[in-house]
Design brief:
Distance between the termini: 27 Å
Subunit structure: Monomer.
Structural class: mainly alpha
Order of helices and strands: HHHHHHHHHHHHHHHHH
Mean pLDDT: 91
InterPro entries: ADP-ribosylglycohydrolase, Ribosyl_crysJ1, Ribosyl_crysJ1_sf
Protein name: ADP-ribosylhydrolase ARH3
Keywords: Chromosome, Cytoplasm, DNA damage, DNA repair, Hydrolase, Magnesium, Metal-binding, Mitochondrion, Nucleus
Organism: Lymnaea stagnalis (Great pond snail)
Helix content: 55-70%
Radius of gyration: 20 Å
Length: about 375
């Protein structure tokens, strides 16, 4: 009986992760690009959503053929990641790359970044033998440092859940991200999201979240990657014997921001402007991923002013949107982290009803869950 209950909870959290990402994307997309989102206006819109849904329930209205809120490239690419991992049972770079390209050329108006078309064009080129090559040529060989890898990566954490091996997860995330983003900042940002989702899945639901512990666990896993990259890009060794370069904040930028998040979470009156200025909410990975982590943890440990009438999951997503900027991506990343902790039941039914792609996300989560139930082959 206890095992069945645990399985039911885990399935709910798997669904919460993927569906949380979808609703964050769909609702966040309504405010994308705005420098300022008024909390009261956002709440009014969400309350109207619930009232409209209640009216439909009372009158027995059937679900609309077209959803009220459409998903963006965030969900489109996450679906390709999940679909490839599920169908192949392992990471298959050509297959996943092909899915990215096919999805893009089928529906190019999902809000993709302007430079990504060239990558997908290269991937689908029959003469391309290395699917990583098109992305590696971006921006004169430096690769994109955008958040396109981070926004789609949550399925990787579900796929490797049973391994409980950070090294395997990091390797998988790196491989998935490099299909479109080869800059180390993009790769490390995607790794941070995946690690945060993985840690969220493993948190006990009946215990308060220890933010310091959560962040320290992320830093322990991420710091070696940042330091290793910094060492490899230092150039010629120093002339002075036995000299050592000190790894400063610029050498480990994600760890530096994670440490700052620790401090921010202890500030009683943290201002939105401070979060935006210091963590960022733009389309770069470094300028958006840390903000998503903050949104998740802030909602977990306190009732956010003006949002206290909403549950922890809703507070996470709504707070992410109020930060403005790349609202769909910050909300989808934070929503995946929160959904992984609070489970499917915490996601408002009206949000699930009106957001496109929810049913498919549920189905994919079930497939990932079933992988955890499969017997291990010796």
């Amino acid at each position: 009986m206890a095992t069945k209950l645990m399985d039911k909870i885990l399935l709910s959290r798997f669904k919460g992760c993927l569906v949380g990402g979808v609703v964050g994307d769909c609702i966040g997309a309504l405010y994308e690009g705005l420098s300022h989102v008024k909390t009261n206006d956002l709440i009014e819109r969400i309350n109207k959503l619930e009232k409209d849904r209640q009216t439909q329930r009372e009158h027995g209205t059937k679900p609309a053929e077209k959803y009220g809120f459409s998903y963006t490239d965030d969900t489109a690419m996450a679906r390709s990641v999940a679909g490839s991992l599920i169908d192949k049972g392992q990471f298959d770079a050509p297959d996943m790359g092909k899915r990215f390209a096919e999805e893009y050329f089928r529906e190019p108006d999902r809000g993709y970044g302007g430079s990504i078309a060239a990558v997908f064009d290269g991937i689908r080129d029959t003469n391309t033998t290395d699917v990583y090559q098109p992305a590696s040529k971006q921006f004169e060989g430096s690769g994109s440092y955008g958040n396109g890898g981070a926004m789609r990566i949550a399925p990787a954490a579900l796929f490797t859940f049973c391994d409980n091996n950070a090294t395997k997860l990091i390797s998988l995330v790196s491989s998935i991200t490099r299909l479109t983003h080869t800059n180390h900042l993009a790769i490390h940002g995607a790794i941070l999201v995946a690690l945060a989702v993985d840690q969220s899945l493993r948190l006990p639901q009946d215990t308060a979240v220890d933010c310091d512990e959560f962040i320290e666990a992320l830093i322990i896993k991420l710091r070696p990657l940042e330091e290793e990259h910094d060492k490899s890009s230092m150039g010629p060794p120093p002339l002075k014997k036995n000299s050592k370069r000190v790894l400063d904040a610029s050498a480990t930028p994600y760890c530096a921001k994670l440490k700052r998040i620790k401090e921010m979470l202890k500030e009683p009156n943290l201002k939105t402007a401070t979060v935006v200025e210091e963590l960022g909410t733009d389309v770069s990975a470094l300028g958006s991923v840390p903000a998503a982590v903050l949104c998740f943890l802030k909602a977990a440990i306190q009732n956010i002013p003006k949002l206290k009438d909403h549950n922890k999951f809703s507070q996470t997503v709504l707070y992410a949107i109020t930060l403005g900027g790349d609202t769909d991506t910050v909300a989808t990343m934070a929503g995946a982290m929160a959904g992984a902790l609070y489970g499917m039941e915490a996601i408002p039914e009206s949000w699930r009803y009106y957001c496109e792609g929810v049913a498919d996300a549920e189905t994919m989560a079930e497939h990932f869950f079933n992988m955890t139930q499969a017997p291990t082959v010796q």
